[in-house]
Design brief:
Length: 282
Amino acid sequence: MKVILTGATGFTGSHLLAQLLERGIRPICFVRPASAPLQGVPTITGDLADPQFPEADVLLNTASIGFGHGPAIVAAAQRAGIRRAIFISTTAIFTTLNAKTKSVRMAAEETIRNSGLQWTIIRPTMIYGTARDRNMVRLVRYLSRWPVMPVGGRGRHLLQPVHVDDVARAMLLALDHDVSIGRAYNVAGKAPLTFNQVIDVVAAQLGKRVIKVHLPVTAVASMLALAERAKLRLPVKSEQIRRLNEDKAFDYSEAARDLGYAPIPFEEGIAREIESMGLRRK
């Protein structure tokens, strides 16, 4: 089986590459020219705005479809004679906010569905797992240093972070099960938690006592928006604060039924992340 993997040097893609190699599959990795070199696997470079893929059986696309490259990636797969294709999207397409990339991602999914490919779409929730993630790593670092945590809102809305290894595994499970062809699956962590609970779990793993200070979400988001317009560099964005105040719990029972998907608990996953960062409970 000849496999093309996009985004192999990225966060999710690097974990998927490791799992492929464990299976004895050496994919052809499509990466940007500026990406770090990969050892031990065939690599081609190019631009996702106009990718050129060699002939292959399977495309595993972990590169973001939120930058408008979805149609070009689909067209490249069609030109290369690829039939089976598995794409990473995101549960963020269900946000009630007017997020900039929502319409782009939804349009990309529509292109995939109409492509004629034997497609599967995997929609993870917030991905975490190592210091390379863009989500939990900032919370871990903050709580490792400071005893007071400002929270925009009451912290009672739900999150369901998913470990990066579970996301990579879900893509391979989709490849293993033909029932996934023509289906889109939400892929989440084992159980939802409130943001307050997430803070408590991380603090407990770090051996820290943390005081949460709850602030009015509208005021916090508005101040951040003003700072963004002034082009100030900020640790969080106004949209992220607003997203923390909408529920992001997702049912993954279809992935469990069709693929045998079984994610790890957040407590286990965040412990792995903290260990990988060299931060241990004191």
